[in-house]
Amino acid sequence: MHITESFAVLTPLRHSQKMTLELPMHIAQCSSKTALVLTAALFSTLTTANLASDRANYQQALTAFNAENTAQADKLTASLRGYPLHPYLEAKQLRRDIDSNSDTKVADFLERYPNAPFARDLQTTRLNHLHKTQQWSKFHSAWQQKPLSSAKYRCQAAFADLKLGKRKAAFTQAAQLWNVGSSQHDACDPLFKVWMQAGNPSAELARERFWKAADARNLRLARYLEKLLKRKADKQDAALFFKASANPESVFEEKQLKKRNVHHGSIAAYAIRKIARKDIYKAADLWLDMRPKLTIEPRKAYNLNRYFAMRFAKGYRKNAAQVLDQLDPGFADDKISEWKIRLALAEQNWDRSLTLIGQLPASLQNSSRWLYWKEVLKQRVNPRYTPNFAGVRQDRSFYGFLTSEITGAPYQLHYEAAGITEQEKASFAQRADIARMRELLANEQVYEARREWNAMASKASKRDIQTASHVVYGWGWYDQAIRGASKIKAWNDLDIRFPVAHKPLFDKWSQDRNIDITWPISIARQESAYDRYAKSHAGAQGLMQLMPATAKATAKKHKVPYKKRAELFEPDTNIALGTAYLAEMLKLFDGNRVYATAAYNAGPHRVKQWLAARGELPLDAWIETIPFDETRNYVQNVLSFAVIYDVRNQRKPSLLSTAEEALLALNGSARVETRYD
Fold first, then answer.
1. Which of 334, 337, 447, 615 would disulfide-bridge 611, Cβ 3.0–4.6 Å?
2. Which residue ranges make up each domain of the chain?
3. Which residues, at least 6 apart from 583, have a Cβ–Cβ distance to it below 8 Å?
4. Which residues in the chain come in under a pLDDT of 50?
5. What pTM was estimated for this model as a whole?
6. Cβ–Cβ < 8 Å for 627, 314
7. Which CATH architecture has domain 503-667?
8. Using an 8 Å Cβ cutoff, are 348 and 669 in contact?
9. Residue positions annotated with a catalytic role
10. Is the N-terminal amide bond of 201 cis, ω within 30° of 0?
11. What DSSP letter does each residue of 70-104 carry, written as one string?
């Protein structure tokens, strides 16, 4: 069992954003002589004396290309032939001169760099040029050399085939490209025009695409496709779908829905979802009534069962337990099954909770989560029972660490050294793509460096990805090392999974805020994996993922200099504000790190609501019944990460404080209701 990885969404990082590389702690803290040797090994492929000059010339070349200063750009490019990023400049030349270059020259370049990100950029320029100039034979050859996955270029390739007389192949591609639930790129229009003039689509294909558009809720496209339907029955079904869209309840009147018609099942599912937006109880009753009366695709039935189950369970709505039992009486859906248990835990119905755990499939019953609760519940049902946590505490997980703490057993980290030697890393770092990656980072082109990583990882073995992860860890590119380990599930490679970046800043601000240093470090590890430029869909930014509004209020309250959002990408500012906000949450929730951690993720207003609704629960039950999956995992991960960091840094580890541990279900003490105003 491993602790779940989750990361903030990465926004594209352009070369205007600076990434400062830092040496790992084990290098930074060694003697200057040793550090020099280790650092030199990282740059063995480059002549150190020329490196600064090459980087400066590379930046000047980029400026010249952007300014369309051809002579200067070409002169600088020629001077950088031995520099790892020379191919980027060469690709810029080829793209700039695409009108005058021979296609053979471009093809030769792509042959040398088939998988590089800049090769894809060049290929898009090449294909656009050949399509624009109607060089269909060359387009076909170029496409054969390096096909691209986007619909735009697939349509252009099929159109080129059409122009070359390969009508059958072109029409086969046209049918596949047309038959999707969304509108295709405008580049597909010429291909589709010829294809449709030939009598396409067939009645069957038109019906198929209509329902794909309907399933995607693309009503505008569905209206267009309705006109292409040829069969009377298909037109009637389409009309019924639009009736459901306008007035969802009306389709359940006068027995309009037929059991044998699978599309009527889709219409019913669509209508019920629309009704649920206004009246979840009415919609759920309707679903449970209509479900056995209609033919519904298994995927749609599964999704609707899950939808209602989560709406009822996570909202702790009345009769939620009964609704979940009706939705999934056979325990077929693991997530619904687990929420049945959480609802019982929230009611402190220990007998039912224990019975429900026994209904889980063996794989879930044997997870550390439910093994823990099974033993705790046995003790709550029968106070004479002595829980046996032997099967739980072997896990490197929240519940594994919790049982170790309860029983006084050592925490099991299951660390396994990767066994990658310094020589292996030095040799791997000499690869052209790895050298390019390193120089892109040095030139503050983090987005391009990540593209290089993705290209490398798409073709690499697990061992190569692990080696690459250790190499970039040595550069201080910690977030990519963590993601590399996660990609290949190298869960026991704790050396690269749990680095400590910006430790002096965490030391400084943790002491200033009077909080334990491991806590904000674990928050940053969970929030951003130490990617200082991480940005979530919600807008949270930086190492500790602060919302700009929260940052502004916190800065004002704690007198931290802060003027604009971009400053949240600066480690000092981000950590200063993040630790201040953490300290606020800790004070707000009377020193309880569990509640404070949940509040940092979900907001204090939500935690107050959850405590008002279920604050009488034992602390472990309260955590398990947090309605947001993300926040539940977040709390458990942050607390677990703190244990890992403490053990690895030879500090006294503790998952929970003594006061927090006293609130566990196993201790059986009644909770005292507390208000957090």
1. 615
2. 46-147, 503-667
3. 513, 514, 515
4. 8-20, 22-46, 669-677
5. 0.90
6. yes
7. Orthogonal Bundle (1.10)
8. no
9. 527
10. yes
11. HHHHHHHHHHTTTSTTHHHHHHHHHHHTTTTS-HH
